[in-house]
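User: Quick sanity check before I run a bigger batch. Here is a single chain. Can you write out its predicted 3D structure?
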Amino acid sequence: MAQTCKELFEGVECTVLGNPDDQVTGLAYRSDAVKPGDAFFCIVGLSTDGHSFAQDAIDRGAKVLVVERKVYLADATDVTEVVVKDSRKAMARASANFYRHPSRAFDLVGVTGTNGKTTTTYLVESIVREAGKRTGVIGTVGVRIGDAAQKSSRTTPESPDLQRMFSDMRDAHVDVVAMEVSSHALDLLRTWGADFAVTAFTNLTQDHLDYHHTFEAYFEAKAKLFSKDYPAKRVICIDDAWGRELLRRCSAAEEAVISTGFAQDAQIRPVEVDYGLGSTTVTLDVRGARHTFTYPLVGAFNVENVMTAFGIGLQLGFSAADIIDALSGAGQVPGRLERVAGPAEAGIGVYVDYAHTPDALKKAVDSIRDLTSGRTICVFGCGGDRDATKRPIMGGAALDADYVVVTSDNPRTEDALAIIDDILVGMVPGEGRYEVEPDRRRAIERALRIARPGDAVLIAGKGHEDYQIIGTEVHPFDDRIVAAQEWERIAASAGEEA
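Assistant: Done. Predicted structure follows.
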């Protein structure tokens, strides 16, 4: 696949210094990934400036430099420079051009919000598959094209990687792609140039304020997906003020919107909900028609996710009957209130959930409390090098449980004990109802040991992740596997004592 500079930058306001007919055979935004014939985008990042790596890119064979200011390099005489106002926006548009706008070949669904994105995309995948169509999924857990899965380092990849994935999905004849769209991706223009069929909003709670600084800035980043820059049909949960503001904006623009939520004026809302240990039975009012069905997910927050997926299904043109059939048979979402199998005689429910925001943790704890007759024991920590202001709030949210074991999450380059100290600031009212065990495996073991028949243990924060980042090293660690191992070991030692 090769394009001239003129073709690659069609629709991009730019000045070409050099030969506009130069052939570009690839795109790169990291100089160490440049291959001969590539165009290298000098991205001005949060901590580094890509213009500083222009010489390295040339040395590795870059034929075109995309810059926000002309670079003066001794070895750049045979290199074409494309001067643009915003290198990120230019990279996104050029990526769409390079792969010939692959998102136009299928229905692209973008789901944004603080919590519920992963579950919603999985439910949309179920709806589409039930209808006999091919699916693609991009998000926190990874990327799937049909049944083929691969890991992803970001919830929403950088624009060249994203458009390449779209190209692969087009070539695989995918009909619908469900994608999680993060606030970072929207702010950093990773999805610029993508064509959406439906965009959906779940909720907005505290997260990523280390990046956005204020709730208002965080919301405006999310709101970009519902602006004129991303025309599409909309699905909006209106259970918080942010969702209602989005609804107001989209309604004023006379867009096709389906509102969802527990609110009485939502177009899709629950009339009755019966929560079970392994499933939920719900009666939904869907634009005046009532539908009762059972699906294999638990918790009140999953009612919200089911309603959002229902609205997306309708906006994609699926019938209510087909949507209900799909949701009734939807599979377990990895690391989202995922139950860990253990000794049947223990009589203890053990769940792993990705909850890593105050709102998500509170909802997960409350959901577990609704499902169990005994105590709820919560194991959680907070990640390092991330929004520190939410740590004490997370501590307070955890105290919705009867007992809490505070531990380490992914401390990264921060001191794990210092992170725990931040958490404990919010747990003063819970004196006597929590303990600290920095070692995550030992914390899980401790929670399982103090649990009694009828109790439930929630291990929160990492969900599907199969690693723990300590310093700059990545260590194998999967809460689900560790919990199963420790549970089995505890059961075996109890048997020996008996």
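The chain has a mean pLDDT of 93.

User: Great, the batch can go ahead then.
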